[in-house]
Specification:
heterodimer, A: mainly alpha, MetI-like fold, three-stranded antiparallel β-sheet, 18 helices, 67% helix, elongated, B: alpha/beta, Rossmann fold, five-stranded mixed β-sheet, globular
């Protein structure tokens, strides 16, 4: 009987509550649903804003940068006059290197337009159709194949940067002749060349192979690409083994005491140190104290390796920590020693995480400019470095240098080089994703 | 995890000098007082005055327990009573926890396992362990079993290893189910199969003792029944110590039971006696479900 009464009371309570609370509850519920919707909307709009900026960034860079991958060239029938190229007739390479190829290029230009103009001013204007770097283009062909001397061959020569700018629309044809960089006579010659198919925009391989130059049409990323390549190799071979070993020791073997606590805090701090400080360190230690060559990519590589170390250590440690303790227990349980447990079970499971962290670190290093400025990698380097000891620049530094140049051609090259850098970073990131997918155990 | 283990063995030197016969005699004398039929089994593992500390906190207080050979001993008690801690002392799994400190003596066949001269790796090969959550390695079924024998160099060639893998799986009652997919992932099996795989993995190193830490708590009743049958089977060749929260399981599979409470052994004895006629009031309360 008693139990029945209690039940009744409970039922009563419930009914009283529901009668009074039902409206409140439904109101609450609506409020909660509204809050949820609102929150989703905030998140979605945050993503949209981010995407919008990304799209703006990419359209500006690509819009500005794509002309850099095309370069105007003029096809001229070049007469390699032995009188000019090799007056002594010895086919001596050193002599061949010193010949006056500019004259040869100009002669070819005169032939193209039916004779040398009488007027000195007209001649000068005509000369300005060609880039100042054409002598190197002809020279390289002659030195590579001296049997060409004496023959007349068609060669594609770089047009002047201003001519290129007109064709790409960067210089407006309709401005006053006096205030226009390209004069009316030049425009007429250009139109003639374009009409005869002798002046076209060709894919600009020079952007990837040429060294630094003060003329935009002959400036390229060659040295910067080599420098960046050397530095990535140095970072890979220094930062990964040292970083992973340090992380393994700290995470698995080091005793937990004040000293390791201090080390841990400092590693975390190191990851937050401004990169220019690493540049200062490189300057003080590697160049001034150890005497490594200034501007050499070895110093850049060492500095970037130091910079990447904390990132790799932190990523590796968290990857090791993320390995389920039950796997360790299982390994210990069958009698695996500590080293065996780590190398047979923990490290393979942590590998994808380590790879991701490492590649993020390397991507950071590849995009780094500030420390390289400190160690003199911001230099005008025209000779291709064959070892990391020789002066070089790096991609982001080259972008920085081009961005400070005034010529129209460098504006597009700045954006073009940025596209090259971004493409490189995309490739690295894709590599990271691929490695992670490949080694992530799906079972 | 960083491991610096501090193991304080307070065992008097005298103990080591005792030979096995003396020990047996000792144990038999002790056994009589704890109602275990001395004629049935000889003692495999003896524990004397085991104290365990996690940092400042003491988890076990003077545990004395004899575990008979080729039988199942179950450790029961409410959560946090120290039964798992005690189990982990037997294969020195507590060494891995750096704040854990163990004192007292545990002897297997009369040999002190906390002897500094003893290699813990070798000890763990002789004492298999099965954990609460099935934890097969993320490798193939074959490699899961072969891992232990490989690192200890138990087999000479591939054929021997194949044989050992097969016999281990047969003993664990898993061979029929997995013989066609030995190269498949161990984690692709069902929960119960995974746990039997872990038992097979433990058997593969040819242990004398198998420790089981709530081996069925993550399994459904059917898988549990299979494992219990397996345990009953294994007891003929192995000494088994099992921690369990299920009274029925302890009653079904074990011959000896020890009841832990707040880090102490309240009562130990033959399973039938503990469950039908407990001497201590707390034991009575626990097994009838009044607390814990």
């Amino acid at each position: 009987m008693e139990a029945q009464e209690v039940q009744k009371e409970i039922a009563n309570d419930l009914s009283v509550h529901s009668a009074a609370a039902k409206r409140r509850m439904s109101k609450r519920l609506k409020k909660r649903q509204a809050a949820e919707k609102r929150f989703r909307f905030y998140g979605l709009s945050a993503i949209c804003i981010g995407l919008m900026f990304l799209v703006i960034l990419f359209t500006t860079i690509i819009g500005k940068g794509w002309p850099a991958f095309l370069q105007t060239s003029i096809q001229l029938n070049v007469n390699l006059d032995p009188e000019i190229v090799d007056p002594t007739g010895g086919r001596n390479v050193e002599k061949l290197m010193q010949a006056n190829y500019t004259k040869i290029a100009r002669n070819a230009l005169y032939t193209e337009f039916g004779g040398k103009p009488k007027n000195r001013k007209t001649r000068k204007l005509m000369h300005k159709l060609l880039s100042r770097g054409v002598d190197v283009q002809i020279r390289d062909q002659v030195v590579a194949n001296p049997s060409l001397i004496g023959k007349t061959i068609p060669i594609w020569l770089y047009a002047h940067g201003n001519v290129d700018a007109v064709l790409k629309g960067a210089i407006d044809r309709n401005t006053e002749n006096s205030s226009r960089l390209v004069k009316d006579e030049q425009l007429a010659w250009m139109d003639k060349l374009v009409a005869s198919g002798k002046m076209v925009k060709r894919f600009n391989w020079g952007l990837f192979t040429n060294p630094a130059s003060s003329q935009p049409e002959t400036a390229g990323l060659g040295v910067a690409l080599i420098g960046t390549f050397f530095m990535v190799i140095i970072v890979l071979f220094l930062a990964i083994p040292i970083g992973v070993a340090a992380a393994l020791y700290l995470e698995e073997f080091a005793p937990k005491n004040r000293l390791t606590d201090i080390i841990e805090v400092n590693i975390n701090n190191l990851a937050a140190v401004p990169s220019i400080v690493f540049g200062l360190l490189g300057l003080a230690v590697f160049i001034n104290f150890m005497g490594l060559p200034r501007s050499g990519s070895i110093v850049g590589g060492l500095v970037l390796a130091l910079m990447t170390l904390p990132t790799i250590i932190i990523a590796t440690r968290s990857a090791l920590r993320a390995v389920s303790p039950s796997i360790r227990e299982g390994a210990y349980g069958v009698g695996a020693s500590k080293i065996q447990t780590i190398f047979h079970h923990v490290l393979p499971l942590a590998f994808p995480g380590i790879m991701t962290g490492t590649i993020i670190g390397i991507v950071q290093a590849v995009g780094e400019t500030a420390p390289l400025l400190m160690i003199g990698m911001v230099a005008f380097v025209q000779d291709f470095p064959t070892t990391p000891m020789e002066p070089a620049t790096a991609l982001p530094v080259q972008i920085y240098m081009w961005a400070t140049s005034a010529e129209r051609g460098f504006v597009e090259r700045t954006a073009g080089a940025t596209m090259v850098l971004l493409a490189g970073l995309f490739v690295l990131n894709a590599g990271a994703v691929y490695l992670r997918r490949k080694y992530e155990r799906k079972w | 995890m960083v491991a610096t283990h501090i193991v304080e063995s307070e065992a008097p030197m005298l103990d080591k000098e005792l030979d096995a016969n003396d020990l047996d005699a000792n144990n038999l004398a002790e056994a009589e007082t704890t109602n275990v039929d001395p004629a049935k089994k000889s003692t495999k593992i003896t524990s004397e005055d085991i104290d365990v500390y996690y940092g400042e906190k003491q988890a076990l207080f003077g545990i004395n327990l004899d575990i008979p050979e080729n039988s199942v001993t179950s450790l029961i008690g409410p959560s946090g009573c120290g039964k798992s801690t005690y189990l982990r002392c037997i294969n020195r799994m507590n060494d891995v926890i750096d704040i854990c400190r163990v004192s007292g003596t545990i002897k297997i066949d009369g040999n002190d396992i906390y002897d500094p001269a003893l290699d813990v790796v070798e000890l763990r090969a002789r004492i298999g362990m099965v954990f609460q959550k099935p934890n097969p390695f993320p490798k193939s079924i074959y490699d899961n079993i072969a891992y232990g024998p490989r690192i200890h160099g138990l087999t000479e060639n591939k054929d021997e290893l194949d044989e050992l893998v097969e016999s281990s799986l047969v003993k664990a009652g898993l061979w029929k189910e997995v013989k066609d997919r030995l190269a498949g992932p161990g984690t692709g099996l069902s929960g119960g199969q995974q746990q039997r795989l872990c038992i097979a993995r433990a058997i593969a190193t040819k242990p004398e003792v198998i420790l089981m830490d709530e081996p069925c708590s993550a399994l459904d009743p059917i898988a549990t029944a299979t494992i219990e049958e397996l345990i009953d089977e294994l007891r003929r060749n192995y000494t088994i110590v099992i921690v369990t929260h299920s009274m029925q399981q302890a009653a079904r599979v074990s011959q000896k039971t020890a009841f832990f409470h707040l880090g102490k052994i309240i009562e130990e004895g033959e399973t039938t006696q503990i469950f039908t006629n407990p001497q201590n009031e707390k034991t009575q309360d626990y097994i009838t479900g009044r607390f814990g």
